[in-house]
Amino acid sequence: MDTRTYSPHIVKYIPFLYVVWADDLLSASEISVFKKAVKEDHLSPEEKKLITSWLNPKTPPADEVITSWKHLIDKSGVKLVESETYPLASFSMKMSLPGHGEEELSDEKLKFIEINLGIQPNHYRHLFDVETQQVPKANFYDPAKIDALLKGPHASYIDTFREFLSDPAFQWKISRDKDTFRPRVLEQVKLLASAGYGAMAYESRYGGIDNMPAYAGIFENLMFIDGSLTIKFGVQFGLFGGSIQNLGTKKHHDQWLKATGEGTLLGCFAMTETRHGSNVRGIKTTATYVRETDSIVIDTPGENDNKEYIGNALHSTMATVFAQLIVNGTNQGVHAIVVRVRDDDGNLMPGVRIEDNGYKLGLNGVDNGKIWFKNVSVPRENLLNRFGDIDKDGNYTSRISNPNKRFFTMLGTLVGGRICVAKGAVGGAKLALATAVKYALHRRQFNSGEKIQEDLIMDYPSHQLRLITPIAQTYVYHVTLEHMIRQYTDASETSRRKIETQVAALKALITDFSNKTIQECREACGGKGYLLENRIGDLKNDVDIFTTFEGDNTVLLQLAAKGVLTDFKSEFNSDSYGDILKLVGTQLGDRLTTFNPLFTGNTDKEHLFDPDFHLETFQYHVRRLTFTAASRIRRYVKKGIPPQQVSLNIQTHLLALGRAYGVMFSYEIFSGFVKTLEDEKMQFIFRKLGALYALHHIREHAAWYLEHGYISGAKSKAIRQRVERLCTELRPHVVSLVDGFGIPEHCMTAPISTN
Known about the structure:
Radius of gyration: 32 Å
Helix content: 40-55%
Largest sheet: 6 strands, mixed
């Protein structure tokens, strides 16, 4: 049929007919809607007859007819404008009456069809030439520049590594069977080792580049591939290899470190015990020196004193075993000994028993197991002797005479693991947020009743609040952890005690944040987020354990709080609060004064966005909690309450202090970072991210600030409004912000993030 013979009255129906026949199925409801509109329209009998003939599913329009419709649509030069109230009706009228004014292009019958067919532009936009309308300033920030800021000085290593992850061996897939999942993860770890990534933190003589920050960076990026791979990688090279590197001496490095980095020697980190998960100092496994054989005998005294939840246990040949070292009848405290658990053929060594922990909530690609030792003898030289040694005469020696200080110094060398866990958690949050945001940028629901086009869910203020707020927090935590890994790498043994306190708070704060964020992302994606193919479910299950391994968060927050109380200057190696009181009583004092009403009630935008206000608010929170905790301790001690009971009495107070300190410390680092940015445009958006982070946390603890008279009710309300306003202001840049995470395209495999 010659398309030029169609009358304008027929032409206006053609785009609708083309849409409903494009899927080869015209439903009964669609027929009913069309017939009603055609019947009531001012058409000639011939026009009604022709249109009605195209509405019979038993005799559908011939292919040539549908092709002619397509030709007519393409030839018209009209573009579909999705933002219009009735996009398809408007498009159809522009085709039928080219050059006419807007008032002449309104057709109630077409609107009736569009409304009652329930079709959205996203259902048919691929059939038309669409007029794209960019959101103002949507591309104002270059994600590559943001990513470069986050990568910092080790950008070249991260970029090369991300490209390496495009290898098909790292392609993510749904894995429900641990017996097929684990071997695949093991092969991936070996592939990473062969490329030199496992040894990055080791010295060059052992195959590395002596770059712990770069290693931590690739650890975080591994979360974009798979949580199990990330943890298996960390156990092999970070925990097992790290224990040899940090607790051993050159003889141990020469013997085991290079093979560990190459992945030819597989090892595990056997610290945790079934009955003493967080109480490392109280573990029951013994390592008894036997002078007659110049050996150390490892023994599990009771059935429930076994090593528990040990990653890499089913694949390892060696294990770093933490045990009470007994020399000449004296317990010298917890030390680490390298123990062979399997022979070259993979058989368990005599006296070693290992059982599979079985299926877990997540991380089922990691072979966690339980280990028992029954009189397992190893050479004396297997003692990792950086902080304590047994000489050739069988006598114990250490340059650190105080056993408590020696214990905490030893554990302080392993703080890098907690930083990496926190970075891995941030990596998981990044992937979940990027997935949820990209889904929200094409998923539509609800409209005003007047508009046909439904709204993007990313444009709902509630959705912005739930996704953009954690994006800001993610940026703050990324910058904070980058700072901490550099500090840790360059720290002396003395300064590492301070860093241990800081990292304890950060690990607890950040892993808790990541879990909540991933859950929020799951809910923000509805049922799609619940599908395994979209990866948020696996992220949720994998990151869940981050809150309790490498230090239970509740324990770590108390450790951080005790560090705050001693002002990082007193050794806090026991439950004695005397050292705390000496410092707090003399150094802190009650610096809390009556507040200026002009401050507590100030709701000016400039004030609420001022980093100095944010920092002072966080510092006051920590200062007040510190002072009141110390005061409570003083009262209890004066009454003769035993130290352990004092600790229990103020435990929840300590948890609040630990959290407040983590929030304050993170903001201090981030605000300092923002000041170093030379690009004013970048500084502007990073300052906004910092303001959103700060106001969110102040709002989160508004009840506390109100109770203490630090802010007024009006100011609390203004802060809530500013949080929402900041999310709205950051909305146009949300794509740049999640792309700024630098997640490679080949890692964004969730279907909802790509279509």
